[in-house]
Amino acid sequence: MVYPEEAARDRPARPPGGLRLAGVVLLVMVSAGCGKKGPPLAPLGHRPEPLATVDTRQVGSDLVFAFALPTSYTDGDPLAGPPTVRLLRESLGGEPVVVQSFAPEVVRAAPGTRVTLQLPIAAAFEGVTAPTATFHLDTRGPKGKTSAWSAPLAVTRSEPLPVPVGLRSQQLSEGIQLEWSAAADSPTDLGYNVYRRAASDAEWGKPLNAAPLGGVLFMDRDAAVGILFEYRVEAVIPASKPPRASAPSEVVRLQRRDETPPEPPTEVRAVAGQDGIRIFWFPPVSADLARFRLYRAAGDSPSTLIAELSRDATIHLDTEVSAGVTYTYRVTALDAADPPNESAPSTAVSETVPAERTGAAPPGV
To answer: Out of 5, 11, 76, 83, which residue is the most buried by the measure of CB atoms under 10 Å away?
Structure first.
């Protein structure tokens, strides 16, 4: 029996090429089966999934791309951290041009979340004389493996749209009204989008209007009371490819005030007794009810405020009355706004102090 070591000593020093290749293959097979592990190699499928949907629009002089990052690699492993995102431009008969590479620290978003990236349209068309170009986005993982391209993004180079001017706001009973003016050189087919955010928020979100506005007036009926809001407007041509928008207008701020009073109290009654006149009522159902006001008129005299009462009050004793005099009472409700909103007066009720009232002052006193 010949052992491998003895066979090796008997081989020629320089075997023929075919044998030499077989020896290399054998060495690779032996190395693969040994216990010592080399550096791990990423599987061929370990590349990010492609971007499913990319929304492209021109805002001012910039191209803006919005999309959701993939969550996994093509082999099913979860994507670890934000990838590099590349913008590619197709070229005739050649390799695509890498227009811009957005590093992970620029992307700065977790897998599965939405990302917005932008660059000047002049940079995207650098070296291109044609008015249109086709772009793609891809992503590159930390090991350098690149995803498949996104769907083609056709872009026509266009001049920036003029910015709306003179944005102003005011509160009306229906809500916050916004009004602005079109720039002097605006195209006739412009529409407008209105954006709102709380002053403490960083993002603007979607337009308040469901479709671009044909005019320069908008009523925000859904603005919550007591929150400081910021508004801005963009001019848009949504039918262009990609959709075009102007740079945002200046920002205006407004805090909507509470101008809705509570309902008035109900079931108001007045009952005279030996110690005065008691007024009863039922309070309105109101979350911001703060207090009540009681008004009184003596005979034909004008009505005057005689008491401010807490929100828990449902009865008041009026002792400043005279025998034989008829008094008329009304109750109002106030809310907690600053300044407060006062309800309409309740139904008026009248009562006369009987002349035999003990200790009553004579009429006119």
So the answer is: 83
CATH numeric code, 266-352: 2.60.40.10
In the CATH scheme, what is the code of domain 54-156? 2.60.40.10
Query: Contact, 252 vs 230, CB < 8 A?
Result: yes
- In this structure, are residues 149 and 236 in contact, taking their beta carbons and an 8 Å threshold? no
The full set of domain ranges for the chain reads 54-156, 165-255, 266-352
Q: What is the pLDDT along the chain (365 residues), one digit of tens a residue?
A: 433 433 333 333 333 344 343 333 333 333 444 444 443 444 456 799 999 999 999 999 999 999 999 999 998 999 888 999 999 999 987 889 999 999 999 999 999 999 999 999 999 999 999 999 999 999 998 888 999 999 999 999 999 999 999 999 999 988 999 999 999 888 888 999 999 999 999 999 899 999 999 999 999 999 998 899 999 999 999 888 889 999 999 999 999 888 889 999 999 999 999 899 999 999 999 888 999 999 999 999 999 999 999 999 999 999 999 999 999 999 999 998 888 999 999 999 999 988 765 444 444 44
Q: For 165-255, CATH number?
A: 2.60.40.10
222 DSSP β-pair partners: none
Show the DSSP H helices in the chain as ranges. 4-10, 17-33, 104-107, 121-124
